[in-house]
UniProtKB/TrEMBL annotation:
PANTHER family: ISOCHORISMATASE HYDROLASE, PEROXYUREIDOACRYLATE/UREIDOACRYLATE AMIDOHYDROLASE-RELATED. GO terms for molecular function: hydrolase activity. This is Isochorismatase hydrolase. It holds the Pfam family Isochorismatase. Residues 5-147 form the Isochorismatase-like domain. The keyword Hydrolase applies. It comes from the Bacteria.
Length: 190
């Protein structure tokens, strides 16, 4: 039987309105992540929260010890849920994430959070490279407008491009409703 973990990546205050690096669609993504969190807790799945802090106080956002670096109240961890602190893009790099997953016998990860084009991309690819089956809940993920060579790439297009790339060879892509419906079917047939 598959043993699954929900990993919520970087849903921290600086990404929300009033923060230092607001994302497009963050409120909707966080609301969906909160639904996933409730379902994972009810199912008894492992929940792992990932929190990013830059290593220095002059960081543009996620400054160590700041309110902006704290997990947003919409998906706040319980004391029993591990919080992985990372200082780089990939949540596996220099952290205990793999050890936590392996210690709990996890073979499938469900990923939600931010940002589509960087930390979600990195954790998904690394998870698959480590042998975990990955599902990205695409409407529980947010990003922001990007810029390349003077061209503005709207957040929706950046998100779609990265989800398409992950869905091509790395992860199953589901909406929150699809994952929750699929989970209910699995619970009934188990």
């Amino acid at each position: 039987m598959t043993k699954r973990a929900l990993i919520i990546v970087d849903l921290q205050n600086d990404y929300f309105a009033g923060g230092k690096f607001t994302l497009v669609g963050i409120d909707a993504a966080a609301a969906n992540a909160a639904r996933l969190l409730d379902a994972a807790r009810a199912a008894g799945d492992l929940v792992v929260h990932v929190r990013h802090e830059f290593p220095s106080a002059d960081a543009p956002f996620f400054v160590p010890g700041s309110h902006g670096a704290e997990i947003n109240k919409s998906v706040l961890n319980r004391d029993s849920e591990p919080v992985v602190l990372k200082n780089s893009i990939n949540a596996f790099r220099g952290t205990a994430l793999k050890e936590i997953l392996d210690h709990n016998g996890i073979d499938e990860v469900v990923i939600a959070g931010a940002m589509s084009h960087i930390c979600i991309d990195a954790i998904t690819r690394a998870a698959v490279d480590f042998g975990y089956k990955a599902t990205v809940v695409h409407d529980a993920v947010a990003t922001r407008d990007l810029e390349f060579n003077g061209i503005i790439v709207p957040a929706a297009q950046a998100h779609a491009a990265f989800m398409a790339a992950l869905g091509f060879a790395y992860a199953t892509l589901l909406s929150t409703d699809e994952l929750l419906a699929k989970s209910r079917v699995l619970d009934v047939t188990a």
